[in-house]
Amino acid sequence: MTEPLLMRIAEALERLRPPPATAPQWDSADAFVWHAAPDRLDPVAKVNRVDLSLLLGIDRARDTLLANSIQFARGLPANNALLWGARGMGKSSLVKAVHAAVLAEGLSAKLVEVQREDLPSIGRLLTLLRGAPVRVILFCDDLSFSHDDTHYKSLKAVLDGGVEGRPENVVFYATSNRRHLMPRDMIENERSSAISPSEAVEEKVSLSDRFGLWLGFHPCSQDEYLAMIRGYCDAHGVEIDDATLRAEAIEWQATRGARSGRVAWQYFTDLAGRRGVRV
After folding, report:
1. Are the CB atoms for 266 and 234 separated by under 8 Å?
2. Which of 32, 123, 168, 241 has the fewest Cβ atoms surrounding its Cβ within 10 A?
3. Residue 253 is part of which domain span?
């Protein structure tokens, strides 16, 4: 193959390569979403979140994550956090509400959401954020891995940072229904089929150990469920007596087969719609 032909091939490949991501106008928004191919940070005009005071039954997780986030926004040491446990109990809502509370304190921090499927590009995102003049809470919702999933290797760049280390201005928060980010049957299967069972899943299971904070979320009691709904009603001006609320909310919960903060919000949405109240 001649040298001119090789040069043309190299130039064609160079043209096909996507341009490197450019830093956004950080003042344009408080939150951004990372997209890969092409790499970019899109500003979020309005973040979908609820007030921190309306998240009930998760007091310890709320106080711990808020304190950690305020430390980070003030330029002090802070831990990466894994919020794990029961579905619908406000894990992702807490991250967004805590971010709003940090801003309400007069501190500056940007919330950047990255999708699980975009984790292979996270190294490029960290390069972009490393020189940013802002502090960034990097957020990945509903994080989990299957047995043939290698995305967890990309995540180590955030948690450990490799040779360069995690950028001083970045902290990573993730939510998951699984404490070890992997289904239990997968862990047991790899242990039973491996030559060295103790080492078979060490690399994947140890990923969760790299989070400095583990915040557990558990199913709520009926009293907590009803208190959540009453809090939503009071905050949005929906009038309903306690007896009617209790009867309807319990029936709603029974039809869903579950009781959680998400189910409480879904009942409240239905109630507000029936009462003609915009939320």
Report:
1. no
2. 241
3. 222-274
Exposure letters 97-128 (e unless 16+ CB within 10 A, then b) = bbbbbbeeeeeebbbbbbebebbebbebbbeb
Q: Are residues 228 and 166 in the same domain?
A: no
Amino acid at 225: Y
Ranges of residues in the chain with a pLDDT under 70 are 1-21, 146-153, 157, 161-164, 180-206
Same-domain check for residues 131 and 267: no
Count the domains in the chain.
2
Q: What is the pLDDT of residues 161-208, one digit of tens each?
A: 666 678 899 999 999 987 766 655 555 555 555 555 555 456 556 677
Nearest-angstrom CA–CA distance, 269 and 279: 8
pTM beyond 0.70, yes or no: yes
- Can you tell me the distance from the alpha carbon of 144 to that of 136, in angstroms, rounded to the nearest whole number? 22
Q: Tell me: the pLDDT tens digits for 143-158?
A: 877 655 566 667 776 7
